[in-house]
Amino acid sequence: MAISLSLVLLVGIILVIMIRNGRVKWGPALVAILFGFLLASSNVAPDIQKFLDSAAEALADINP
To answer: How much of the chain is helix, strand and coil, in % rounded to 5?
Structure first.
């Protein structure tokens, strides 16, 4: 859960920065937000969460 929340905050901050810099207009940003909201309530959401969890675990296992 902590990784999901921090990932949501990171992507949200990136989206706000992209909107403010003019790289993404408000219309496409709203569509992206709605798509993410609808995707989170779909049947694909658990698979995406498993992928993100395994990717975070793989990153954590990398030794410098």
So the answer is: 80, 0, 20
CA 17 to chain centre: 15
Q: Dump pLDDT digits (tens) for 20-33.
A: 998 888 888 888 88
Q: How far apart are CA 30 and CA 39, in angstroms?
A: 14
> pLDDT tens digits for 15-64?
889 889 988 888 888 888 888 888 888 898 889 889 888 988 898 888 76
Q: Cα–Cα–Cα angle for 3, 24, 10, nearest 5°?
A: 15
Among candidates 34, 38, 14, which has minimal Cα distance to 24? 14
